[in-house]
TrEMBL record:
It comes from Lederbergia graminis. Keywords: Coiled coil, Membrane, Signal, Transmembrane, Transmembrane helix. This is DUF4349 domain-containing protein. The chain crosses the membrane at residues 253-286. Residues 1-24 form the signal peptide. It comes from the Bacteria.
Length: 293
């Protein structure tokens, strides 16, 4: 009985020792990961700074050997003789040079004045050529403004930050492959998502600068002031109709006058007869008196 009790006690002690060792191992594992995580962040930060500095210096050397990155913009205010034809010629020139139209608007103030606004993007190598061609299509250049913005340093900074973020992304992916605990995977996954989001933002900013440098922007305001020449009002030039009307009016006047004359003569015959009789009587009396004298 004592022997069996001793064996049972020994088994219980061994089981307790085994459980204690397992718990200690788990605690050690947690402590090791925590330390590894802290070290990882320090290591990643160091790698990030080093990669960013190296990328910046490398890009500076590269940009010194090549042309600077300049964003060109131009604004033209011009007078034109025929707004529609001039706009069509300029738009055709844009397409011929490989550019594209961003915005096109036409405004009509009244019958004598109208204007248009045209915003176009032209490949950088044809920028000056397009300006010369556009000015050749107008009657008068009222205002001409050309600006250039050097974005070389800004692009270098974005490029170096992007390369550094890519290094961080690579290190986080390595830690993710080695992680064994769920909480570690979640932490690394969260950090990785933030880094990848920052990478996409940097890529978008660099793409925007590339586009602005590759294609110059030209804003053209065109004005047309036309002299309105009135059309001949043919409705007021009905010569034949007016001649016929005047002839009819004249005939009507003659007929009316003749009719009035006939009416006057015939209608007043009794009066005329009475006057003739009275006149004849007076003449007879006067003549008789003279004979007596």
């Amino acid at each position: 009985m004592t022997k069996k009790l001793s064996i049972i006690l020994l088994v219980v002690i061994l089981a307790a020792c085994s459980a204690r060792q397992h718990d200690a191992k788990m605690e050690s594992s947690r402590g090791d990961y925590a330390g590894t995580n802290d070290n990882a962040e320090s290591s990643i930060a160091a790698d990030y700074d080093a990669a960013e500095e190296q990328a910046r210096e490398s890009k500076k050397v590269e940009m010194q050997q090549e042309d600077r990155m300049i964003i060109h913009r131009a604004r033209l205010e011009v007078n034109v003789v025929d707004l529609e034809k001039t706009q069509q010629k300029i738009e055709k020139k844009v397409k011929d040079l490989g550019g594209y139209i961003v915005e096109s608007n036409v405004y009509r103030e009244d019958d004598t004045a109208k204007s248009a606004n045209l915003i176009v993007r032209i490949p950088e190598e044809y920028f000056q050529q397009f300006l010369t061609a556009a000015e050749g299509e107008v009657a008068d250049v009222l205002n001409r403004s050309v600006t250039g913005q050097d974005v070389t340093e800004q692009y270098i900074d974005l490029d170096s930050r992007l390369k550094s973020k890519l290094v961080v992304e690579e290190r986080l992916l390595e830690f993710m492959e080695k992680a064994t605990k769920t909480e570690d995977l979640l932490k690394i996954s969260s950090d990785l998502s933030k880094v990848q989001e920052e990478i996409e933002v940097l890529k978008g900013q660099m793409k925007y600068i590339d586009n602005q440098v590759s294609f110059s922007t030209v804003n053209i305001n065109m004005y047309e002031s036309a002299v309105i020449i009135p059309d001949i009002d043919k409705s007021k030039l009905n010569t034949w109709d007016k001649t016929k009307k005047q002839f009819a009016d004249s005939m009507n006047f003659l007929l009316t006058a003749s009719s009035a004359m006939v009416v006057f003569l015939i209608g007043n015959i009794p009066v005329f007869l009475a006057l003739i009789l009275i006149g004849g009587l007076i003449y007879f009396i006067v003549r008789r008196g003279r004979r007596r004298e």
